[in-house]
């Protein structure tokens, strides 16, 4: 109950500080936000009249503590409420890179999509997969990728089988892992 209460307080803090228009956008995006397998989106009818407290409780009842905060951070990122996303991530102990806003430039094409071919060819992926395990990769996805023999086969599995269902939050997590484990590769690609 203590963790649930702490999570409720963090979610409430993030949601109560949204402008009315942003709260409305948050509810609309939350209804269509791609959630992990095994979870369902909160029905639109339950979101429409929800205030910040109702939303925080709905997030917790649908997604439990840790995933509720992850979903909220992802939705806040999607609606460009970066300050609230970063504050919630900081309070929740989730890593969000300060350089993430630069990830989505060039006509809103994500860095991960923009540099797909080069990342497939040049990424030593095993350490990156370890960073993604349990956050954006399920144990089954992780094992399926690791079973491939070469780095290129592993990256193709990630790009063509798993990433099509990812939103920008998931791609941001891949970017952060790549930047953490392969900083020179990311610097080189960012310079292009």
Summary of the model, kept short:
Residues 1-94 form the Pyrin domain. This is PYD and CARD domain containing. This protein is mostly helical and 192 residues long.
Characterise the protein shown here.
The chain has helices spanning 2-16, 20-32, 44-48, 52-78, 82-92, 111-114, 116-122, 126-132, 139-146, 151-162, 168-181, 183-190; strands at residues 104-105, 109-110. Strand 1 and strand 2 form a beta hairpin. Strands 1-2 form a two-stranded antiparallel sheet. The protein is built from twelve helices and two strands, in the order H-H-H-H-H-E-E-H-H-H-H-H-H-H.
Helix and strand arrangement:
Layout: H1 2-16, H2 20-32, H3 44-48, H4 52-78, H5 82-92, E1 104-105, E2 109-110, H6 111-114, H7 116-122, H8 126-132, H9 139-146, H10 151-162, H11 168-181, H12 183-190
Antiparallel strand pairs: 1-2
Helix pairs in contact: 1-4, 1-5, 2-4, 4-5, 7-10, 8-11, 9-10, 11-12
Domain Pyrin: 1-94
Domain CARD: 110-192
Protein name: PYD and CARD domain containing
What labels would you give this structure?
mainly alpha; Death Domain, Fas; 68% helix; 2 domains; 192 residues; elongated
CATH architecture of the largest domain: Orthogonal Bundle
What's the rounded overall pLDDT mean? 84
How would you sum up the global shape?
Answer: elongated
Major beta-sheet overview? 2 strands, antiparallel
Please indicate the percent range of residues in DSSP E strands (runs of 2 or more).
Answer: under 5%
Number of helices: 12
Strand neighbour order, sheet with most strands: 1-2
Percent helix: 55-70%
Give Rg in angstroms: 17 Å
